[in-house]
């Protein structure tokens, strides 16, 4: 009963109770998993608010894993915003105060010497397929939340299982606790993480290298997923390892793929080929440049020359439009910087004499506007109306999470553009009624990508995660959108998450096989993907 993966609570049968010595330790009546799920749903609904629901589900997860996933499967659209964004953000901020039980692996930069011993306790474990790790410097759009970041690793893994049937006994959540710069945590006597500022430089690099080395040696079959690192570290880690081991950064590559899927659908809906679009990205950080990279690759695949493909992008960060003379421009942003002579006549109305979003929209006349800035409400009525005055179907994607940080609300975007905008958001939003049409709002969240991407990678035993595997996931998702329907979302709905993930998995595995990075090449990939999926059902348990 104390092992959540095996626990059945009052669903232990009479024989199991006898055999496992549970008689007398449970109320006499045996319930089914379905009965338990009904009761758990009642209890879930009785929670006063979203955080209460998150805490309830976390406790259930820690008590009875099959029941937790059964419930999640039955109410996926309702519960995803609780176990994942936006509520997981609140749970991370409240981690030390809501703390009840540890889950996952807590690695500390203050004990590099002890890391080998921690991993040694696992022996060599070939059964672990997937590890999600964060250092929590960039949790969603809410910044640095230290050790509480473990909840994003746990949350992503829950989505992997609910969406793609990744076996929860074959995964591991990790937090790499390098300290925190969050003042409120540094001053909180109940904070349970390393209570000092973030360690950077050589010791941090050594921490990451040691984690990768030990994880690879201990769990030789595990795909290493990186989540919510600060921009510089996210990039540096991905660059270092992507061509050496089976690994990906979800904020850069998963987000890039889901955004590309939405953009492909928008191109279809607006009947303008991708190579003729002008794209403004507001917030040129981890996600923003990750998105630019995948859209640009797709433009090149459409036949545009590599050098010319950059001309379709205008990227804006804190210092305004990125130009080749922008202060503090990062190496990964540089390819997307505009030439300063080209923008010399642009008005400089932004802070410190910079070129702001409104001016870029006026000058560049974008067809696609993407927000990854963490600046809630940044897409103002003036900006949106200016954009919409130049074309029939403006594609607008406020991607920032959690919900209050969304660059715009879908209802405003629909109203300001008289229903013409093709709106896709990062956080979940309800449909919008306008002039008799119901506008479904696609959720451009990497949750549409990473579960299937992971499953396809595991099924094909890919040695590396190649660009074509991300393209395959984007194309698979875009192919599931019916752009012809009035008010249609530009992405499949979260209700379809399991079908989407299975489709993505098959296409990703096929791409891995085609590229020669797969160690398994099943004849029937659809069957192999189905067979690999874990389902929340009770198995007969025997004493050993
Ligand atoms: N929908 C999805 O699947 C995903 C959404 N995101 C969201 O995107 C947002 C950004 O995440 P990351 O890229 O990981 O963070 P990041 O910190 O790497 O990037 C944010 C960028 O926005 C810039 N920025 C901040 N204030 C600005 C302003 N006033 N004007 C212009 N730029 C400004 C920052 O300088 C930074 O470069 C977050 O809210 C996150 O939740 C991230 C990953 C996936
Ligand atoms: C969805 C996600 O990965 C983020 O907002 O960071
Ligand atoms: Mg993230």
From TrEMBL:
Residues 61-242 form the Malic enzyme N-terminal domain. It comes from the Bacteria. The lineage of its organism: Bacteria, Bacillati, Bacillota, Bacilli, Bacillales. The keyword NAD applies. It holds the Pfam family Malic_M. Keywords: Metal-binding, NAD. Belongs to the malic enzymes family. Its cofactor is Mn(2+). Residues 252-513 form the Malic enzyme NAD-binding domain. Gene3D superfamilies: Malic enzyme, N-terminal domain, NAD(P)-binding Rossmann-like Domain. The keyword NADP does not apply. This is NAD-dependent malic enzyme.
